[in-house]
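Board notes (copied after class):
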Amino acid sequence: MQPHYHVQKFIGDDVLHRIGLYAQTCAHIEHALWLYYFHVDPAHPNDKPKAKKIMDLRLDTGALIKALKKHSKKAHPDDKALLDELILEVEEGLPIRNRLIHGALGFNHETEEYFMFSHWRADRGKAHEYERYDGPLSVSFLDDALSTADNILIRARELHIKAIKRQGMTLRLNE
């Protein structure tokens, strides 16, 4: 079968599928934690600067994690341990997430392995210092990353759902 999209010429559908699942899983983790943030640092609709700050957190996962850490002491006592676990796990997983979401993959036909052409990570705290990652990337690595992310997503959604129910609110279909 002929590749439909150009990227399919050098990355197999099985790997593209896994990366797509992983990307959406990470997006939903970030969304669930962002929604939970409203429970630990609520903003009044008339407080435009604070509302904007919270909206901006959705655009930067690292900033969201820092904000959740800062305000985690305000979490409901039943949520605190799980929130702290999730913060740690997401923070530890960010390099893998960024590598898989932003890195360019290739396939070595001699070794029959996928590899990362390169992923550059800038240390936000230090101007112009970059870290390069280029190395092998196995399907089992992708499967492990996806399994870990799926487990985090399940717990992040549970955390958000508990907070909503505690407030007597109802969920929309995909929340």
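Comment from the instructor: The helical segments are 13-40, 48-57, 61-71, 80-102, 139-166. The first strand starts at residue 104 and ends at 108.
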